[in-house]
Structures are given as C-alpha cells and as structure tokens.
Here is the input.
Amino acid sequence: MPRSALLLTLGALACRPPLAFTDPIEPDGAFPLGEPSAEALARYEAAADWSEAHHGLALLVLDGDRLVYQRYAPGWDASTPHHLFSGTKSFSCALVASAQAEGLLEYDDPAATWISAWQGDPEREEITLDHLLHFTSGLGQAWGKLTRDGMKARQRVEDKYALALELPLRSAPGERFEYGSSHLMVLGAALTAALGQDPVEAMEERFLGPIGFRYAGWNRDPAGNPMLPYGAWTTGYEWLKFGALVRDDGRWQGERVLPEGALAACMEGSAANPAYGRTLWLNRDAEGADLSAFASLEDQGPILWGDGPADLVAAAGYGDQRLYIAPTAGLVIARLGDGDRHFKDAELLRLLLGGE
Here is the structure.
C-alpha cells in the first residue's frame, strides 16, 4: 500500500470507528514449551528488546515443534488477538493450492471462468488466478473503497467484490506488480463460485480447522464477503500454526493436511517481481519492481535480509505484523506490532537469526 494511502486510511479511521475483534484466544497447548540454547536465548532477548523499542507487541519463536521463546509488551499477553492486516493474504494462496490439488482449478485458469461479468471482455479474460495471487492482474486499487472502508465498523461500500470486478485495468496482465486489495477481492469472487462456498469456510474445512487455527474475527463487507486481503484477527500463537504448516510442506505435527509440494507454489515469484510469491514475500532481489512504499524492506539485494537464508519467506501486514518462516533453520517467528517508521525487517532478522 502506498504510504500516502496508509495515512489516509488512518485518518479516516480516526473519523469513523474501526472494526475490532477483541475476544481472547487462550493458547491451546499445541506447542510444548522448549528451552533455547544460551546463545539463541541471548539473540531472542536482543531481538525482543529491539522489537519493543519499535512498538512491538508480541514476539514468539517456534523451533521445530517447540515454542522456545515468547515475550509480550505491557498490557498484552498470549491470548490477545490483533489485526493481521495484510498478513492475512497468504491464507488465500494455501486455499488455491489445496483446491488445485483437488483438481478443482489451476493457477493458469482465467478468473472469468467463474466470473460471468468478465466473460466476453477480451482484456479481463486474460487475467488468471496466478495474476491475482502475484498482484500482476493490472487492475486498479480503489484504496479508499476497498481497503479503508473495509476496516470500519460502519462501512459504506456494500459489496467490495462487485466493486473490484468493475475496476479499470491500468496495465496488461502479468506486466506489472502492484500491491493492493483488488486482486484478492476478485480472487474471492472467483473462489466463491469455483468452490461453491464462502472462502473462509473453505479454508476452515481444508486446513485451518485441521491445524486447530482459531481467529477472533474476520473483516467482512455488508454483503458478507470476507476480506481476503486484510481480514483476519488472531494471536501470535495461532499465527505460528499456519507458519508451521507452510514450513513443514503441508504437514501438521506429523500428519499430512495438504498434499506434498502444494504450498511450494506460494513461494514462487513472478517475472514482474521475483521477490513476491503468490502472497508471500521472498528473500530475493525484486529486480526493479516498485517497492518504494515498503520502507521496511531492503532496497538492494534480497529484500528481507541480505545475509538471510535463501528459503526465508514472510507474510507481512501493516503495522509491522510479520510471520517469518525459515524452513532449513526449522524456525517460525511471529511478530505483532503497532507500527513504527523505523522498523526494518533486516535488523530484526539479524538479531533473531544471528549475523553481523
């Protein structure tokens, strides 16, 4: 999201009350507690100090199947849900991955297959599910109506999926990466038709339920559509569950939930932006893609951390919500925050993982 749009969002929320889901979610014991090494503990403590100094609210580290570190800011605890904002986006890729494995759809399928309003429009018929997940559909964004309005308790835009379907194309599909909500709003409309059910209910059936993932609420528009780009409210503890599913290639505590290799597609970049997978940020060079609005990322080389592992990926949301997944290191790290303009992914990762 462009920084100017974020400022407008905050200003508007100050005028009308934001939607909030605050019912606590008590940890369910899914992760046994473990003890990190003395060296790792020192790193995690330093990282937590830095995180709190930059408005961090929670920092949790899962090593293998054990929760080896957790710290919460004053007034916060393990049961306190927080808005993931765009950290929500990666759930959509997991849903498409599962549906493809079931033979219900393919990444290269035109979205118009399930969107009758687009059928007969030669430009829109070129937009595939893959373009929507990579944010290369070419659609405009309508930040105020699709994003800002959807975070309010009293919304003015009744059906955000329908609005997204009518947005003009600003570039040819596949040509340009543009971060925003419109892509996943359209994806939500396509998935609702393709699967014959609400997308969040489909997630619960296929993978959120099997891993015991719980959320306090999910932003929806007045028409009942779930906001796939930014809707989920949950705790850092619960977010770790999804990270473990991704890290372990669709397995949850030894049991297969999603087919082997299905989630690997979420970590494949596009020609327009090799550093953005299908809704996950990748530790690669963006190769000229416009990331000027993302001050927390590195502007040269691997965008998350230049010294970080090649398979490091992140789900990221406004306010510095982060889910870092490092498969070869066996780690999943959840960080919840309240936003700080000096927050840098590379600095937090350096302290967490070790480096000069």
